[in-house]
Amino acid sequence: MSWRPQYRSSKFRNVYGKVASREHCFDGIPITKNVHDNHFCAVNARFLAIVTESAGGGSFLVIPLEQTGRIEPNYPKVCGHQGNVLDIKWNPFIENIIASCSEDTSVRIWEIPEGGLKRNMTEAVLELYGHSRRVGLVEWHPTTNNILFSAGYDYKVLIWNLDIGEPVKMIDCHTDVILCMSFNTDGSLLATTCKDKKLRVLEPRSGRVLQEASCKNHRVNRVVFLGSTKRLLTTGVSRWNTRQIALWDQEDLSMPLIEEEIDGLSGLLFPFYDADTHMLYLAGKGDGNIRYYEIGSEKPYLSYLMEFRSPAPQKGLGVMPKHGLDVSACEVFRFYKLITLKGLIEPISMIVPRRSETYQEDIYPMTPGTEPALTPDEWLSGINRDPILMSLKEGYKRNSKMVFKAPAREKKSVVVNGIDLLENVPPRTENELLRMFFRQQDEIRRLKDEVSQKDIRIRQLQLELKNLRNSPKNN
C-alpha cells in the first residue's frame, strides 16, 4: 500500500491577510517608544486609541475610525496622566468609555465625546488610586458592566467596581510582576502569568488559586483562555531560549498537553484567539509576520494554517471586536498594526476567500455582543452567566443604550481586605531609591545655584547703595 500524506480539511485553510491601502491607514502618529511589553493600542467599532510619545506625562490619541489618512501634529490628545501611559482598554459595553493605567500609579476612566476629541482632554470622569507602584495592565470583565481589573508593580491585582469608584477585592498571591491576565468565556476564572515563571488559574472573587504551574522547561510570558474548551495557551521561552507555545488543561496544570517550538527569535510572542472560528494568531513583537493555527479538540490539537508576511516590524497590535468587522468581505479578524519607524497604523484584515456574496453562516456564528449579562452586584454575589450573543447577519448591530455615570466621592483611605492600600506601601527597590537619591541631589544643586545667584544680587545692591551714599549730590 503506497504512502499518502494525511489531508486535513478546513474551511480556514486558505485564510489570507489583506493590508489596507495607504489612504485607509493612520499616518503621522508619534507612537510611544516605551519598551513595556504591551500593545499600546486599543480599538472598537467606533474609535482607535494609540499611546503616543510625549514629554512631561503620558498621553494617547483617540481617532474616529472613519478619519483615516494623515493625522495633524497638533491633533487633540487625552493627556491627564503625570507618568507614561502603559495600557489602554475600551469598555466592551459602552463604546465611548476607555480605561488607562500609568506609571503615576493611577487608573483613569475617560469619556470620549461623540465624534471624537475637539481639544485636549485632561479631566478624567473617574480617577482610581489603590496601587502603590506603577500600574502595568488593565482588563474589563467580559460579561459584567463596570467591573475593571488592574495589575500593578506592587504585585497586586485590584478589582474595581466603577459604580462606586472603589476597589472591592485585592488578589495578593503573586510574588513578582504580573505579565498578563486573561478571562474565560463567562469571566468566572482568571489566568495570570508572572515574572516568577508561574502560570496561575484563579477564582477572582475569592482570590483563591485553583491551579498553579511552575514552568521549568517553558518560561511563560503570555496566556489566553481558548474560549469554552477548558484549555489555556501560553507563549514563552524554552530552556534553550527559543520561542515556544504550550497548551494546558485548565483543571490540571501539572504538565502541558503539548509544547511546540516556533523559532529562535527573541521578540515576545503575542497570542490572539478567535473563539468563533477556533483560530489562534501568533504575532511576535519586532516581527513583521503573523502565524495562524486552527485549534482542535483532539490530538494534535494545534494545526498550522498559514503565515501573513510583512517587512515592517510591529510594536503592538490592536484587535477589532467581532461586531466591527466587514461581514460582506468575509472578514473574520482584523489587526491594527503599530509601525513605530513610519509613525503608521496599518489595518490588516484576515479574510476567508468565498465566491458567494451572501452571508456566510458557517464562519459567523452567534458572537458576544455589546450587552452585559450581569451587574457588578450580581457578579460580586457569586453569579456567573455566559455573554449575551448577537448575530452579525446583514451587519446587524444592537446599539447599547448604557451610559457611564461616575460616582461622586471624596478622596479617602482605600481599605481592601482590612489593608489601607494608600498607607501600606511596600519597601522601595534599589533602582527606585537610586532615582530618588539622584533627584534629591539635582534639587539640592538647583537650590544652591538659586542661593548663590541671590547672594550675587545682594552684593550688587549693596555696592550700588554704597556708591549712591558716596556720590557728590548726597554730600
From TrEMBL:
InterPro entries: Coronin, DUF1899, WD40/YVTN_repeat-like_dom_sf, WD40_repeat_CS, WD40_repeat_dom_sf, WD40_rpt. Residues 444-471 form a coiled coil. GO terms for molecular function: actin filament binding. Gene3D superfamilies: YVTN repeat-like/Quinoprotein amine dehydrogenase (2.130.10.10). Transmembrane segments: none annotated. Residues 5-69 form the DUF1899 domain. Signal peptide: none annotated. WD repeats lie at residues 78-120, 128-170, 171-212. The keyword Transit peptide does not apply. Pfam families: DUF1899, WD40, WD40_4. Keywords: Actin-binding, Coiled coil, Repeat, WD repeat. Belongs to the WD repeat coronin family. This is Coronin. It comes from Climacteris rufus (rufous treecreeper). The gene is Coro2b.
